[in-house]
Structure to design on (158 residues):
């Protein structure tokens, strides 16, 4: 489809949380395709490998044709151009997220005004959820119910 409305949802996804899943599902009606793109840089290793992160995301959205999963290692805005995305999707939880995202979003727009950043507010119940909290709970073998998508709960808890 030539004039497909394509959004990139970039992030570390180490691992994907129910907060990410919620933003993506709510954004689906707005776009023809959402590319969930795992951004990485070789100096930060993280808890899950890039391939594991991509597999977990694929498990969550299995059968959802509008979702693609990819990885990239460059400026997000350059990656958006590579995949011909006109939109860059980000989630906002708190004022701290807003300040951080404002800077990145405004500089991205200076670099490329053909990519529009779209923000979605987190659902209130998901505001405290982050990948770093999930990683802590995994390290200490806590219960991840309600924090990670149900499709990957068993896999990630084992
Ligand atoms: P990054 O390392 O780029 O912050 P993350 O994987 O932590 O990557 O987050 C990717 C995107 O998901 C960001 O836009 C972030 O604000 C959003 N996000 C993270 N956690 C939540 C949540 N609980 N609710 C809504 N959005 C979230």
């Amino acid at each position: 489809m030539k004039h497909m409305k394509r959004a990139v949802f970039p992030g570390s996804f180490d691992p994907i949380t129910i907060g990410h899943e919620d933003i993506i599902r709510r954004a689906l009606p707005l776009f023809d395709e959402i590319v969930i793109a795992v951004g990485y840089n070789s100096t930060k290793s993280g808890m899950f490998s890039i391939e594991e992160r991509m597999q977990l995301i694929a498990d969550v959205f299995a059968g959802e044709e509008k979702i693609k999963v990819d990885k990239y290692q460059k400026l997000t805005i350059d990656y958006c151009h590579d995949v011909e995305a006109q939109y860059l999707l980000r989630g906002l939880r708190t004022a701290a997220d807003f300040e951080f995202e404002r800077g990145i979003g405004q500089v991205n727009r200076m670099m490329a005004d053909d990519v529009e950043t779209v923000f979605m507010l987190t659902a209130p119940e998901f505001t405290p959820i982050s990948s770093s909290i999930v990683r802590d709970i995994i390290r200490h073998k806590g219960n991840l119910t309600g924090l990670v998508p149900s499709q990957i709960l068993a896999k990630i808890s084992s």
Notes: Helices lie at 18-27, 50-60, 76-82, 95-111, 131-139, 153-157. Strands lie at 6-11, 33-39, 67-72, 87-92, 116-121. The chain has one domain: 6-157. The two ends are 41 Å apart (CA to CA).
